[in-house]
Amino acid sequence: MSRRYFSPDLFAFLRDLAVNNNRAWFNEHKARYEASVRQPALDFITDFVEPLEGLSPYFVADSRTVGGSLFRIHRDTRFAKDKTPYKLNTGMHFRHERAKDAHAPGFYVHLQPRSCFIGVGLWMPEPRVAHQIRAHIDENQDEWIAATQNTAFISMYELGGDSLKRPPRGFEAEHPLLTDMKRKSFIATAPITHADVTTSSFRADLAERFAVAAPLMKFLCAAVGVKY
Asked: pLDDT tens digits for 149-182?
């Protein structure tokens, strides 16, 4: 299927929202938000079911308007110093089917003016799960290296996220993969452009980019005990 889901007005709307981040402006321009941002994203999620199944049958593209793959544009400001009501990006998260009852990796798409990227992996797992992943890396070092240091992966993705200042408990400072052992998140991101997002091949291109990270996703699923 070749279809252009997103137009340049998605980014134009988010740029305008950045300088008019208030409820009055948003309500006045809500029809534009629905037409240029929300509905195209929901249509994309609906049509990404098939390519996602091609990557793994255990990840979900959910086009429900509440609780699905599309993040709400409303910010949670209850405990935030910044009280602006709206996010300045559109996020889509294709979660593992076990995500509700287990820490599990996922695929992510972040659309924002001059800051688009895709992501894979598991962000800020609880300490017990982080230890599971570190132990799995320790026990399967060659497999981890193959997943994260192959040419296709490193030409597209970069491992990131915050790290511990010291080696985690149970692992020596001389560990050959100490940098990875100290990670608080086990994620990789890759930049994409406005042109990538607005092309009619974005659906197929995204599936291909996610496929490059399949070895990492398989590794992380095995580490936390869920199927890939």
From this structure: 999 999 999 999 999 999 999 999 999 999 999 9
Fold of 8-224: BirA Bifunctional Protein; domain 2 (3.30.930)
User: For residues 59 and 95, is the Cβ–Cβ distance under 8 A?
Assistant: yes
| Bridge partners for 106 per DSSP | 95, 121
Provide the mean pLDDT of the chain. 96
Sequence-distant (6+) residues with CB within 8 A of 58 are 96, 97, 98, 221, 226, 227, 228
